[in-house]
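Hi C.,

You asked whether I'd gotten around to modeling the 114-residue construct. I have! Everything is below, sequence then structure, no commentary in between.
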Amino acid sequence: MDLRSIVDTSGLKRQRYERLTRLVQLRPTDTILELGCGARDRSIAAWNRENPIVGVDVLPARRVQIDQPNFAYLQGDATDLSMIRDLSFDVVLSVGLLEHITPDDRLRQAIREA
């Protein structure tokens, strides 16, 4: 049994988002690049309908299922962000992605890219 089907974690996800925005001192005008955005409410876009957000993930676009005007999706790998011009975003966020990147040289590359 998948516990996510019986446990509501939306309150915790909202608290995590609010904590992140305080830590980075997010302003309403900031543009956000979210690495490893995931699908639906795994993305910070579930909690932010104001800032322009570009989410990057390896998932096919049909699985991301985030349909809101301030969100755009790019299918890609966090270790190669060559499709994005350097310094295009004010803030880069990633929640729960880095621990999935192996081996260590790919992890270091993803951090350099960010």
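If it helps when you're writing up: DSSP finds three helices and four strands in the chain.

Thanks,
B.
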